[in-house]
Design a protein that fits this description.
Shape: globular
Radius of gyration: 17 Å
CATH architecture: 2-Layer Sandwich
Number of helices: 3
Largest sheet: 3 strands, mixed
Helix content: 55-70%
Order of helices and strands: HEEHEH
Structural class: alpha+beta
Distance between the termini: 54 Å
Number of strands: 3
Length: about 120
């Protein structure tokens, strides 16, 4: 299977999951979520869904628990929307890269203020 095809499938799954979370889930535990990327295995059986969650640690934990419990529903919705032989099993993972980038930017901003 082509590397580019797997990337395209992952990107399409990302778009569909984003839409499902925004429009179809009614779980009060799930806060403001952004699906940052999806990594699909070569056999298309598994997908790691990286999400960024806005809020404190408690909100992030509750949101991740809500996504974990809704993963079966989300997988079913993805299966209905995409024509694939197999719908991958979804594993939601917290993407903390945005938090780390924000921390680095704040350090750089402080250093710039100190140098002036």
């Amino acid at each position: 299977m082509s590397f580019k095809r797997i990337d395209r499938i992952g990107d399409q799954i990302r778009v569909e999951i984003s839409d499902i979370i925004a429009r179809r889930l009614n779980d009060p535990r799930i806060g403001f979520v952004t699906v940052t990327s999806v990594e699909v295995s070569e056999d298309l059986r598994h997908a790691k869904v990286f999400v960024s969650v806005f809020g404190d640690d408690r909100t992030k934990a509750e949101t991740m628990q809500g996504l974990k419990s809704a993963s079966g529903f989300i997988k079913g919705e993805v299966g209905h929307r995409l024509t694939m032989k197999f719908t991958p099993k979804l594993m939601f993972l917290l993407d903390e890269s945005l938090d780390k980038a924000e921390h680095v930017l704040s350090i750089l901003s402080e250093l710039e203020k100190e140098s002036k």
